[in-house]
């Protein structure tokens, strides 16, 4: 199916086996580092829980921005549509189960289900990693503007704003700016820490 936003990406655009996806890719490594920042984690989770935003897409917008690539609105929408089914049918239900296990389920209290909850949490993380690998692979097919000479935080802000402006419920420009700033600055701080450690 195509429309004015460009053709949808589908499973046919990718090799069928998950093993052919690069699970441990630079985007995944960036996400692990960025998500270790409490500011990034809090901004992403709050935006996910309040508005239904996709944390992986938020992080992707930042990562490509800090890599010097400016996305366009059509490309961001294509990426969102590509992973929408996985997010709703796999990650969402796993997350719901993990969160439900914080409290007793019938006679099974949290102390009884603690190990199972950890296994569910690991499955959720693996599902997130698969989604990120698909997004990483999809970047090869999307146009992006070279913005290596631009200020990288600004490019990340633009990319993230492109995604979040279409998330339902984020209508207040001040709220949008606050989410973008917290996420981008947290990511930038983690990248700078990483650079300091390697020099």
Molecular structure report:
- This is TIGR02444 family protein.
- It holds the Pfam family DUF2390.
- InterPro entries: CHP02444.
- The chain has a two-stranded antiparallel ribbon with strand order 1-2.
- The protein is globular.
- The chain has helices spanning 26-35, 38-51, 55-66, 73-100, 110-138, 152-164, 173-198; strands at residues 69-70, 145-146.
- 66% of the residues lie in helices and 2% in strands.
- Helix 1 crosses helix 3, helix 1 (26-35) packs across helix 7 and helix 3 packs across helix 7.
- The protein has one domain (24-198).
- It has seven helices and two strands, in the order αααβααβαα.
Please give a quick description of this structure.
The chain has 199 residues and is mostly helical. The chain is built from seven helices and two strands.
Any descriptors?
mainly alpha, 199 residues, 7 helices
The overall number of domains is 1
| Number of H- or I-type helical stretches | 7
* Average predicted confidence as pLDDT: 89
**In order across it, which strands form the biggest sheet?**
1-2
Shape: globular
Largest sheet composition: 2 strands, antiparallel
The fraction of residues assigned to DSSP E strands is under 5%
The helix/strand class is mainly alpha
Order of helices and strands: HHHEHHEHH
Q: Could you estimate the helical fraction of the residues in percent?
A: 55-70%
Which oligomeric state applies? single chain
